[in-house]
Write a structure and sequence with these properties.
- The structure holds 2 protein chains of 2 kinds.
- Chain A is an all-alpha fold.
- Chain A folds into 2 domains: about 5-155, no CATH class; about 220-455, Orthogonal Bundle (MetI-like fold).
- Chain A is built from 17 helices and no strands.
- By secondary structure, chain B is mainly α.
- Chain B has 18 helices and 3 strands.
- In chain B, helix 10 packs parallel to helix 13 (about 280-305), helix 12 packs across helix 13 (about 280-305) and helix 13 (about 280-305) packs across helix 15 (about 320-350).
- The chains are: A mainly alpha, B mainly alpha.
- Chains A and B meet through helix 2, helix 6, helix 9, helix 10 and helix 11 of A and helix 1, helix 10, helix 11, helix 12 and helix 13 of B.
C-alpha cells in the first residue's frame, strides 16, 4: 500500500475517532446518568488523537529509515568482492539496482538480477509490514483510549495538555533547525579538514577545486586555499555597502524628517519593493544590463573592465539591500523623542544640523545594527553573484576585475552530480561553515549593539 | 559684544541655509536613485520580455501524401503514429521554394519551421485521418531565428556573417511575408508547454506546476508549525525559562541565516540522512519551510501581541480555560495579521532560488511533475536556467518568465495589503 493511501486512511480514522469518542461519551453519561466532566467534543478530540497520531509518527519514522535499512540488507547479501568496494561505489551500485527495479528492464547480470529481486522483495515486505504495523497500532490505541472514557474523566485537561505539548514541539523545530545546520556543516567540514589543513584552507591563496580531484596532481591539497573567495566576498559586499548605506540612510532621513505624509506613504512601500524582488531577477538584470553598461562605460573611459566585474554585482547587490538599511534606520530615527529635536531647534539649529548632531548620534546604535544586518545579507547573497560575478578565483582588491565569492563556489561545487564525500563537495560544506559563522557573528554583534547602546528615553 | 555675536551668526546664516538645502537635496536624490533603479529594472525586464508573449507562426501548404508517409491503403493506428511526417514537412517546404539547391540550403530551409511541426502534423493527421492524400494549409511554429527576426531582433544592415539569418534565408522570409504566410500570434504555448532545448517550444508550465506543488508543501508545513510556535511563545511560554529563551534566540538568528545554508541543511540531513529523493517538490518544500518559518513566526507574534489583553481577561473571567481563550478569541482576532504574515512568507519562498540549487532542483526536466515526489523545477530556477542559455529567444523568455513571477508576487503582496486593510481591527 503506498504512502498516500495510508495517510488518507489515517485521516479518515482521525475523523471517525472524533465521532466515535464523542458519541461514546454522550452514551456513557446517559447510561450512568452522570454529568460529563468536559464537553463531549473533548472526548472526541482525545480519541481522534489516539486513533491516528501515534500511527502517523510510526509511519513517518519508518519512511525515514526504510531506505537505509534496505540498502544495508542488500549490501550484506552481495558477493564478497562487491562488499569490499568503497562507500561511493556501493552507493552507485545501489542506485543502479533501484533504477533497474523501477524500469522493468530485463537484467543480464546474475548478481544484479538477484539484487534487484531482493530489493523488490524487501520493498514489498517492508510495505506490507509497515501498513500492518501502522493500522494495528492505530486500532489498538484507539480502542484502548476508548476503554478509558468515563464521564468523570477530565478530557478537556488532557486535550489541552496535548495541545500544549504539540505547540512546544513545533516551537522546538527552530532549535532543531539550528542544530541540524550546525551538525550538517560541521560533520562534513571535519572530514574535509582531515584532508586539507585548516590554515591552508583559510590562508591559502590558490583556489582550484576542479584540479584537486585528480590524484596525480602536484600539490592537490594546496588548491583549496579559500582566501581569494573571502577577499572576493568582502570586496563585493563592501561595494554593496558603499552603495546601500548612504542611499538607505539618506532615504530614511528624508522620509522620516522632511517628507510630507503623502510622499512618505508612496515612497516607503516602493523602497520596500526593492527587498521583495527575487534575487534571481536582480542577478539577471545585473548580468544582462548593468554589467555590459559598466563595461561600455569603462571602455569609453579607457579602463579595462571585465564583463564580470565585481563592480556590477556589487552595485546591484547594494540596491537590493537599500531597504534593509533604510527601514531599520527609519524605525530608530522615528523613535528619537521629539523633545530632543525641539531642544536643538530652540537653540537655533537648522533641521540638517539637528539631524546631524542630535538625531543621528541618538539613533546610531540602531543604524549600525541595520548596517550590520545588511552586511550579513550581502555576504550570504547568492543568486546575484552566481549570475553576475565570475568563477575564477583572483586575489585582488580591484573592483574592475572579476572575482568570485564563497556562495558562488558553493553553488558551483554542489550543482551537478558528484559523489557525496568527494573533496569538492566537502569543500562546499567547509565554505558553508565559514559563511554560517560569519553571518552568525554579525547578527550577534548587531543584536548586542542594539541592546547595549540603546538609549532609554523617558 | 552682543551685537557682534548676532552679526557673526548672520554672516554664517546664508551658508548654513545653503547647507540645509543641500542636505535635503541629498535625501530626495537618494530616494530618486533607488526609485530610478527599480523603474529601470522593471522597464528593462518588460521591454525584453513582452515580445515573448507573441510567437511567430508560419503557414505551409502541406501535401499529406500517403506515399511520402509510407502508408498503404490499410494501416494500423501504430503505423499512422510512426509514419514519416518529417519527410512530408520537408517536401512541402521544397515545393514552396523550388529553387533551393545544396545540402546547406536545404537544411536551412527545413529549419524555417520548428521541430515541433512534425509532431503537430502527426497529431493533426491522427485526429483527422481523412486529410491523407489531400493538400492542407497549416500553421506551424516558426523556428526561433525567424521569430527573433519578426520581432526586429535581427538587423538586415549587418554583414551576413554577423547575422543568425543569412541572405538567402532573408529572401525566403521576405517571400513568406509577401504571401502573408508569417504571422505573430499570442504565445499560448509559453503557458502550456514544458521546458525544451528549443526556445520556440519552451514554456513555463512545468516550472509553474513545480512551484505550485513546492508552495503547497511549504504552506501545509510552515503555516501550522509557524502559527503554533507563535501562539506558544506569545500566550503560553513561561517567562524566564531557559528552553523558551533558547527558542527565541534561535528564531531571531535563523531569520538572518543566508538562504543557501538552508540548502546545505537539506542536502546533508533530508537527502543524506533521511533519503528523501533529490529534485522533488517535497524536499524543496521542506527546505523552504525551514527558511520561511522565522518570517511567519515573527509576524504572527506581532499580530497576537496586538490583540488587547482585555479580550483575554473577558474570556478568562467567563470561565474559559487558557487554551479556550487563546483558540476561541485571541487567534481569530489575530488571524488577518497571521495570514498577512503567511502570505509574505510564501512570497519570499516563491522567489527563492539559492537553496533549491543545492538540493538538485536545477536539473533539466521536460515533464510536468505529477506529484510531490516527481522531479521538477520551480519558476525562479527555470529563470536561472534560461538566463544561462545563449540564444536570443531564451533571453526574451527569461524576461517573460520573470514577468510572470513578478506578477504572482505582486498579486500575493496585494492580497496581503488588502487583507490587512480590510480585516484590521482598531481596538
Amino acid at each position: 500500500m503506498n504512502f498516500g493511501v495510508i495517510i488518507t486512511a489515517l485521516l479518515v480514522l482521525l475523523l471517525l475517532g472524533y465521532f466515535i469518542g464523542r458519541k461514546r461519551s454522550v452514551t456513557l453519561s446517559k447510561e450512568r446518568s452522570q454529568k460529563l466532566h468536559s464537553l463531549p467534543q473533548y472526548y472526541g478530540y482525545l480519541i481522534a488523537f489516539w486513533s491516528s497520531v501515534p500511527a502517523l509518527f510510526i509511519l513517518l519514522f519508518w519512511a525515514a529509515l526504510e531506505s537505509s535499512f534496505i540498502t544495508s540488507a542488500i549490501v550484506t547479501q552481495l558477493p564478497m568482492h562487491l562488499q569490499q568496494l568503497s562507500v561511493d561505489e556501493i552507493g552507485l551500485f545501489i542506485n543502479e539496482i533501484i533504477n533497474l527495479s523501477n524500469s522493468a528492464l530485463i537484467v543480464e547480470d546474475e548478481v544484479k538480477r538477484q539484487a534487484v529481486s531482493r530489493y523488490n522483495e524487501l520493498i514489498e515486505f517492508s510495505a506490507s509490514i509497515k501498513s500492518a504495523v501502522v493500522f494495528i497500532l492505530a486500532f489498538v490505541s484507539m480502542f484502548v483510549a476508548l476503554s478509558f472514557i468515563k464521564p468523570e474523566m477530565k478530557a478537556r485537561n488532557l486535550v489541552e495538555r496535548l495541545i500544549r505539548w504539540a505547540m512546544i514541539g513545533c516551537a522546538s523545530i527552530a532549535v532543531l533547525t539550528t542544530i541540524g545546520i550546525i551538525f550538517s556543516v560541521i560533520f562534513e567540514s571535519i572530514i574535509f579538514f582531515k584532508t586539507v589543513n585548516v590554515f591552508d584552507f583559510l590562508f591559502g591563496t590558490h583556489w582550484s577545486p576542479q584540479e584537486a580531484i585528480r590524484e596525480d596532481q602536484i600539490g592537490g591539497s594546496g588548491s583549496f586555499g579559500a582566501l581569494p573567495l573571502f577577499v572576493g566576498t568582502l570586496l563585493i559586499s563592501f561595494i554593496a555597502l558603499v552603495i546601500a548605506v548612504p542611499l538607505g540612510l539618506m532615504s530614511a532621513i528624508y522620509l522620516s524628517e522632511y517628507s510630507s505624509p503623502g510622499f512618505r506613504s508612496f515612497a516607503k512601500p516602493v523602497l520596500e519593493m526593492l527587498a521583495g524582488i527575487p534575487t534571481v531577477v536582480y542577478g539577471f538584470f545585473a548580468a544582462l544590463t548593468v554589467a555590459p553598461f559598466i563595461r561600455d562605460l569603462g571602455e569609453s573611459l579607457n579602463l579595462s573592465l571585465s564583463s564580470e566585474s565585481a563592480l556590477a554585482a556589487g552595485i546591484v547587490m547594494g540596491v537590493m539591500i537599500i531597504p534593509f538599511v533604510s527601514s531599520l534606520s527609519d524605525d530608530v530615527i522615528s523613535a528619537v523623542p521629539q523633545s530632543m529635536c525641539d531642544g536643538s531647534y530652540a537653540m537655533g539649529a537648522t533641521k540638517s544640523e539637528t539631524i546631524k548632531q542630535v538625531i543621528i548620534p541618538a539613533a546610531l546604535p540602531g543604524i549600525v545594527s541595520g548596517v550590520l544586518l545588511a552586511a550579513s545579507r550581502a555576504i550570504g547573497e547568492t543568486m546575484i553573484v552566481v549570475m553576475a560575478a565570475g568563477l575564477s578565483a583572483n586575489l585582488t582588491f580591484n573592483p574592475l576585475e572579476a572575482v568570485t565569492t564563497v556562495t558562488v563556489q558553493m553553488v558551483t561545487l554542489l550543482t551537478g552530480d558528484q559523489e557525496f564525500d568527494s573533496a569538492k563537495t566537502l569543500a562546499a560544506f567547509a565554505l558553508g561553515l565559514g559563511l554560517f559563522l560569519t553571518t552568525l557573528v554579525l547578527n550577534i554583534i548587531s543584536l548586542y549593539v542594539v541592546r547595549k547602546y540603546r538609549e532609554q528615553y523617558e | 559684544m552682543n551685537k557682534n555675536t548676532t552679526e557673526i551668526i548672520k554672516l554664517k546664516l546664508a551658508k548654513r541655509y545653503a547647507k540645509e538645502k543641500r542636505f535635503k537635496l541629498y535625501g530626495i536624490s537618494a530616494i530618486a536613485v533607488s526609485i530610478a533603479f527599480l523603474l529601470s529594472l522593471l522597464i528593462n525586464i518588460s521591454v525584453t520580455g513582452l515580445p515573448a508573449f507573441q510567437q511567430t507562426y508560419i503557414n505551409i501548404e502541406v501535401d499529406i501524401d500517403s506515399k511520402l508517409l509510407k502508408l498503404d491503403s490499410q494501416y494500423s493506428e501504430q503505423e499512422l503514429f510512426r509514419a514519416n511526417y518529417s519527410k512530408v514537412v520537408k517536401q512541402s517546404l521544397k515545393a514552396m521554394f523550388p529553387g533551393v539547391k545544396g545540402r546547406k540550403q536545404k537544411r536551412a530551409l527545413r529549419q524555417l519551421v520548428s521541430k515541433s511541426a512534425i509532431y503537430q502534423l502527426r497529431d493533426f493527421v491522427i485526429d483527422n485521418p481523412s486529410v491523407i492524400d489531400t493538400k492542407q494549409s497549416l500553421w506551424f511554429l516558426a523556428r526561433d531565428d525567424v521569430d527573433v527576426f519578426m520581432k526586429g531582433g535581427i538587423d538586415r544592415s549587418l554583414p551576413e556573417s554577423d547575422r543568425r539569418l543569412k541572405d538567402f534565408q532573408l529572401v525566403w522570409v521576405d517571400k513568406l511575408l509577401s504571401e502573408n504566410r508569417l504571422e505573430k500570434r499570442f504565445n499560448v504555448s509559453f503557458f502550456t508547454e514544458d521546458d525544451s532545448r528549443e526556445p520556440e517550444q519552451a514554456g513555463i508550465k512545468g516550472a509553474m506546476i513545480g512551484s505550485l506543488l513546492t508552495m503547497l508543501v511549504t504552506m501545509l508545513l510552515s503555516f501550522p508549525i509557524g502559527v503554533s510556535t507563535a501562539i506558544y511563545l506569545e500566550e503560553f511560554a513561561p517567562k524566564n525559562n531557559k528552553w523558551v529563551d533558547l527558542i527565541e534566540i534561535n528564531i531571531n538568528n535563523l531569520a538572518a541565516v543566508p538562504s543557501i545554508v538552508f540548502g546545505l541543511l537539506g542536502l546533508a540531513v533530508f537527502i543524506g540522512l533521511f533519503g528523501v529523493p533529490r529534485s522533488v517538490p517535497l524536499i524543496g518544500g521542506l527546505v523552504l519551510t525551514l527558511m520561511t518559518l522565522p518570517t511567519i513566526i515573527i509576524t504572527s507574534r506581532a499580530a497576537l501581541k496586538a490583540v488587547p489583553p482585555s479580550i483575554r481577561e473577558a474570556a478568562l473571567a467567563l470561565g474559559a480555560s487558557r487554551v479556550q481563550t487563546t483558540f476561541h478569541h485571541v487567534v481569530p482576532a489575530a488571524m488577518p495579521g497571521i495570514l498577512t504574515g503567511t502570505i509574505i512568507g510564501m512570497a519570499q519562498a516563491l522567489g527563492e532560488t539559492a537553496p533549491l540549487l543545492m538540493i538538485g532542483m536545477v536539473a533539466f526536466i521536460a515533464d510536468v511533475p505529477q506529484g510531490i515526489t516527481d522531479p521538477s523545477t520551480v519558476l525562479p530556477v527555470q529563470i536561472y536556467l534560461w538566463s544561462d542559455s545563449p540564444e536570443r529567444a531564451f533571453t526574451e523568455r527569461t524576461s517573460a518568465a520573470i514577468m510572470v513571477l513578478l506578477g504572482f508576487l505582486i498579486v500575493m503582496n496585494f492580497l496581503a495589503v488588502i487583507m490587512r486593510k480590510k480585516f484590521e481591527k482598531k481596538w
